Amino acid sequence: MRIGILCHPTYGGSGVVASELALSLAENGHRVHLFSHDMPPRLARAPGPVEVHVAQGSPYPLFHSTPHDLAIMSRVLDLHRSEGLDVLHAHYALPHAVSALQVRSAAEQAGLEPLKVVTTLHGTDITLVGNDPSYAPLTRYAIAASDAVTAVSEDLKRRTTDNFDGLPPCGIEVIPNFVDLDEFCPGAPPAQRSTAVHVSNFRKVKRVPWLVEAFAMALQQLTASGVDAELVLVGDGPQLGEARRVAQLRNLEGHIKFLGLRDALPDLLSPADAFCVASTEESFGLSALEAMACGTAVVGTRVGGLPEVVEDGVSGLLSPVEDLEGFANHLVSVMEDRERSAAMGAAARERAMGLFDRRRVVGQYEGLYQRLIEGGCDR
To answer: Per-residue pLDDT tens for 166-220?
Structure first.
């Protein structure tokens, strides 16, 4: 198949999944083009045969900002005219699904071969951007006009159908995020210190300062039990400064590390006793899945689609979103008992292998594309 993929060039879930999907589809013999306004990090270091088109637009004085979306649409249309595409897969409702629909319309008007549009909803495109009154009508249009729509969790599908009355011809199909089990796998032995790791973009929804508070509470109990513990924070973003301030206020020097952006995530995840998710919104929890694939137990909040990924009490421990003390107690129970942490980590790896293996999930996307090309919706 000839497949085009539109995505944000980010370390976030949608950019990672789109990039990994592009690489996997190319490995399976499909002709894959990825379009973005910058090079996605996961593709920048990958040798796979994906053709990447970076379209940034020209900063004309008339425009308040550089029109990346228009430049990407033009690039896609040019490629469809010259080489042809069967499917255009938009990751994120705005702007990519709208851009894909405009390309489909322009292709029809130009008499080019038919082009099917698939939209994958990742979370904040529905829960935040999509619910903004300024964008809700356009989000509703993008969902209803797509040839197929997928959501990364049952929770996100439910929230989409509850909030938007227009559905695509084939309804909404749940296709979860996935992980490369060969790349994300148990490797290094447990760290000498009992270690909790967090990876995110440090946006407000991730609540990194809240996590630092919870770790400070847990550290008091761990220290009293003779456990030497540390929290490792990976990433960068708006709340980095506040997280540092809380760490200083709670006297965590020597027990907390800020590593900034890192690519070698398996080397950081596999030796850890716990992976922390403190989010108020989490439509899936890709970072948690990557940790699980590395054999690391998850301590998280019971929000969104995360309970679909983490089996509470088996592969991790989940607490109510505002329960700071409960979260801290879960950290203590995992970091204090390394045998329990190892058992949960093994169960986490098994769950990742059984439900979220890259090959299995990519096959679901391939099946969806093929059904659309053949003109049907049946699953």
So the answer is: 677 778 999 999 999 999 999 888 889 999 999 999 999 999 999 999 999 999 9
User: What DSSP element (H or E) covers 71?
Assistant: helix 68-82
In CATH terms, the fold of domain 194-355 is Rossmann fold (3.40.50)
Task: Identify the band that residue 41 occupies on the pLDDT scale cut at 50, 70 and 90.
Answer: confident
CATH number of the domain at 2-178+357-373, please? 3.40.50.2000
Query: Beta strand 229-235 with 194-200: parallel, antiparallel or unpaired?
Result: parallel
What residue ranges of the chain are covered by domains with CATH 3.40.50.2000? 2-178+357-373, 194-355
Query: SS in 3 state form for 225-242?
Result: CCCCEEEEEEECCCCHHH
Q: How far apart are CA 287 and CA 34, in angstroms?
A: 22
The contacts of residue 19 (CB under 8 Å, 6+ apart) are 7, 34, 40, 41, 42, 43, 46
Q: Whole-angstrom Cα distance, residue 106 to residue 195?
A: 53
Tell me whether the omega of the peptide bond preceding residue 266 falls within 30 degrees of 0, making it cis. Answer: no
Q: How far apart are CA 61 and CA 141, in angstroms?
A: 30
Helix ranges (DSSP H) in 123-250: 124-127, 136-145, 154-163, 208-224, 240-249
Average pLDDT over residues 303-331: 98
